[in-house]
Design a protein that fits this description.
The structure is a homodimer of 403-residue chains. The first copy, chain A, is of the alpha+beta class and 403 residues long. Chain A is 20% helix and 20% strand. The N terminus of chain A is likely disordered.
Chain lengths: 403, 403
């Protein structure tokens, strides 16, 4: 790695400085998310407003380099989530600063850093990598193609992922920036995605936000407070294996462009029928209030209130053998598609699940085939990563991988 | 236009509803910026955290279409800045809703909408457009090329621009989304840019933020409170002409990619020398505190404290015949450059000035030629637009253009 964490970050970490602040920096109290927990932060943590996501490829073929990278990232992640300020040393005046500095004074801003491992970290072109074959969860394979996929390789895959979420987009960007600097010479950015405005509620304390189609999104999400549901649908259990993933989860990301020109020209009735909910209130069709239970059999004027191809019908646990996923996505908007005259905007879908093969894959297969909403969406990016449990103090994220 | 404003927006406007809210929507009090003012909002307004900027080309060659578009935009802008909620009508159930709805419940969020006219609105390919030759300010021509420019046509130019700024990125996006829908059939998006984290302070009430190079940016900006400075450097005066631009200003935008890999590998001394300020404190080199006056003659160890090629020396009013500009830019980050392994991030520079030919152009020429910081920057997009004064109640933005 180009930087020793000796220059800056670990000094701050070892000082245990949580209260004293350097220079003009002011760390807002109560804005830090704990790092050393049984589960990695950024999964059941209440979702903040901003995302910077990076998929990273490892160039080195040395398992020592990979282990060192994860060790340094762990120290850096703990430091960054604590909002610890940058402090140049005399040595840094003549060398490049360890921390590029754009988050000085911003505080922790509820930053979370979540790290995952793609299938390509274990095997590429049929060859084992990093001597990790015995650690490879057998179900952790690339997602299958889905009908209508329009995936771009420059927005898909990756050996590693880092999800940085924060209330301040500059803090999220900074976290990815620092981790990429630490990786220099060992691993490099494959693709990145920024997002804003959570598109799911992951806690009962948060109101349901709207996506860029104007609908409330995530009303029936798994909530972090529902420990039983989290264990059943999100956290890898001892019976699942492998042992190093116990208490971890699998993250699926999909960059989903919304075809807003056609959607915007669709009648309100047509939009509500495609979603299966009222636009303004968020109530399931046939009901009155957002949190009224979804009744897939309810009739209106002799017809099903929720059409057969409505999104909430096809995504419902009742239609999917009880399977649920924890959604935690963000909206995105980017420079318009050249010459299209259209906004490039949509959803950077993120879900966490215990077993993507039993959860995300069949649900998405059903949606891609039949969902009325899917006709207004284009999946342009995709990734799947195994997120191990949180690290022990003194340990590092993914330590069990090397056991 | 595809939508009559009769469907939704003007109904809300004419109802004068500022306090009653529909359904679950809650409009935060005190979050609205006044619309009918002598100057357009979004220029001297304290800068919020988020930007959505659109450059738009007019396809129609009818001056009536252009006038109608500006009239409808004016009504919509007033409505949106008021944070007025979406309210579907019975008619809209069977037709497409006027408002796509993603900002329902978000409130005004200090939204400002600023509209400008590019040189290409007046003349294209040597031919007059819209019978506007007599209204064309003679100095309102495209920016000249600058050394090192790497402009992309898909990120540059435009007949019209709309700058939407807000504390909530979804509200800024929504404003552009609605205005583009209104324009359908008459004008279409040419390019767009989102930004976050203001990179200038435009009011004495705001602390100076940091850009993505980690430096405080905008310490010596023109401040909205300095009325004399605003009149001297920002607002078009009666002596400047043409009459329809009195109280208006010219906006220059530049998409400036930061070459962060090389910058990050530069020593702290090197970075501070290129900028001319200390990184953490923001103090001018040779001084102690951020707001200490810049002393271009100060010496340290017998050398100029602020190097001859430092950014703040070359951008200083002292180096530029007293000329100043009002900067109001935002950071941006986008999906990484394919295959580069690098973050695509930088500054969407925005400045407002009374006469770009006397202000932005000579300053940027000097920076492009000699500025040490410029070697770490790549200008990839560019635009210039004339922003007329604020509209009178009952009138519309740019009305004077058609007098």
């Amino acid at each position: 790695m180009a930087l020793g964490i000796g220059v800056g970050l670990d000094r701050l970490l070892s000082s245990g400085d949580n209260g004293e602040h350097w220079g003009e920096s002011v760390v807002a109290e109560g804005q830090g998310v704990p790092f050393y927990e049984p589960h990695q932060a950024g999964i059941s943590t209440p979702q903040p407003e901003h995302l910077e996501f990076a998929a990273i490829d490892v160039a080195s073929d040395s398992v020592d380099d990979l282990r060192s990278l994860l060790q340094e990232w762990t120290v850096a992640a703990a430091t960054l989530m604590n909002g610890e300020p940058y402090e140049p040393t005399a040595a840094e005046r003549a060398s490049a600063p360890a921390d590029p500095g754009e988050a000085i004074g911003a505080g922790p801003a509820r930053l979370t850093i979540t790290i995952g491992f793609g299938p390509s970290l274990f095997e590429a072109a049929g060859k084992e990598r990093f001597n990790l074959a015995s650690s490879w969860p057998k179900s952790h394979v690339p997602l299958p193609p889905f009908r209508g996929d329009s995936l771009e390789s420059g927005r898909s895959g990756g050996d590693l992922c880092v999800q940085a979420c924060a209330e301040d987009p500059q803090v999220a960007f900074h976290a990815i920036h620092v981790l990429l600097r630490i990786a220099e010479g060992v691993a490099a950015l494959r693709w990145s995605q920024q997002g804003f405005g959570r598109t799911s509620s992951t806690s009962r304390e948060q109101p349901t936000p709207r996506n860029l189609m104007g609908f409330k999104d995530g009303t029936n999400n798994v909530r972090a407070e529902d420990k039983r549901e989290m264990d059943e649908h999100v956290w890898v259990q001892p019976s699942d294996g492998p042992a190093w993933m116990e208490g971890g989860t699998y993250i699926v990301v999909r960059r989903i462009q919304m075809l807003l020109d056609v959607w915007d020209a669709t009648s309100l009735e047509g939009q509500e029928g495609a979603v299966g909910r009222e636009k303004v209130s968020g109530a399931p069709l046939g009901q009155e209030r957002e949190y009224d239970p979804v009744d897939l059999e309810a009739k209106k004027d002799g017809e099903l209130a929720i059409p057969v191809d409505a999104h909430i019908r096809l995504a419902s646990p009742d239609t999917n053998g009880g399977q649920r996923i924890l959604r935690r996505g963000f909206s995105y908007t980017e420079p318009s598609l050249a010459g299209s005259g259209q906004l490039d905007a949509g959803l950077f879908f993120i879900s966490f699940q215990r077993d993507p093969q039993r959860q995300f894959v069949p649900i998405q297969r059903r949606l891609a085939a039949n969902d009325a909403l899917s006709r207004h969406l284009l999946h342009t990016g995709s990734g799947i990563f195994a997120c191990p449990p949180g690290p022990q103090p003194g340990g590092f994220i993914g330590e069990g991988l090397f056991a």
